[in-house]
C-alpha cells in the first residue's frame, strides 16, 4: 500500500518538481521496456561537492559537448568508454541552457530486467568527453553523482506481474489478459476453466526444477488460473512455498520461468515461449 501511495503521489508531483531536480526521467511512472528520456539539469549542479567542476566550464563554454557516465542499475550494455575518452554513443542532447537529455529503452540500454531497474534506479553523472580537469578550472570536468528512482508503470499488457520487486518468499500475482492473446490462436477465447500455467523454478544457470510436466499441469489445481471476468485470469503464489517440496536444502529460487497452457493446445515446434520473473535476493 505504501508503494502504491508513493507512486501516485510521485506521478501527481512530477511536473511540478522535475525542473528542481538535478536528474529526472519522463515519462514517470515508467515502463521498463519502453523508451524513457533521462534529463540532467546542470543548472541545479553545485561544483566542488565531489571534486566536480562541470557547471563552471559550461557557464564559460555553453556549447561544449556533454556525455553521460552511468553505473546503475548497471553499466551500459555498450559501455561508457574511458574516463578520458567517453564513447560517442554516450553523448547527451542539449535541450536548453545547461539542460541535457538522452532517450533509450532502459532494459536494452543497461541490459537488465525491470525488477533490477526499479530496485536500483539510475545513477549517473554528466562529464566532458575527457573527464579530467580542464586548464583554468578547478576540479574534474564532471558533475556530482546523481540518482533517479524509477517508479514502475501500472501494467496493461497481455501478462502482468505484481509486485514489480519481489523476493522468493513474497506473494506473487500473475494476471493474464486472454483478450490480448494475438500470438496463438489456440489460446484465444478461453472459458472460465481453461487457463493453466506451466512453471519452472530456476535456482541458478545450471539448476532448475519443473513443478509438473506440461502434460500433467491440468491435474494440479494450484496451476489453474482463476477467471476474474472480462477475459482475465489470475493466480497468486509464494514461489518458495510452492516449490518447497521440490527444492533441496539450502537452495533458493532466483527466477520463475512460465508460460500459459490450455488442455488440447500445443505450441508450435521450437523452444517454449517462456516468460521470466526475476526474484530478488536481499540477504
Descriptive overview:
The chain is of the alpha+beta class. The protein folds into 2 domains: 2-148, no CATH class; 159-278, Sandwich (Immunoglobulin-like). Helices cover 14% and strands 29% of the residues. It has 5 helices and 17 strands. It has helices spanning 2-17, 54-60, 106-110, 114-120, 239-242, and strands at 23-26, 36-41, 67-72, 81-82, 85-86, 93-96, 99-104, 122-127, 146-148, 159-162, 172-177, 196-204, 207-210, 226-229, 232-237, 255-261, 275-278. The strands form 5 sheets. A 4-stranded antiparallel β-sheet has the order 1-2-7-6. The longest helix is centred in the first third of the chain and has 16 residues, at 2-17. The chain is elongated. Mean pLDDT is 90; it is low at 1-19.
Walk me through the topology.
Layout: H1 2-17, E1 23-26, E2 36-41, H2 54-60, E3 67-72, E4 81-82, E5 85-86, E6 93-96, E7 99-104, H3 106-110, H4 114-120, E8 122-127, E9 146-148, E10 159-162, E11 172-177, E12 196-204, E13 207-210, E14 226-229, E15 232-237, H5 239-242, E16 255-261, E17 275-278
Antiparallel strand pairs: 1-2, 2-7, 3-8, 4-5, 6-7, 8-9, 10-11, 11-15, 12-13, 12-16, 14-15, 16-17
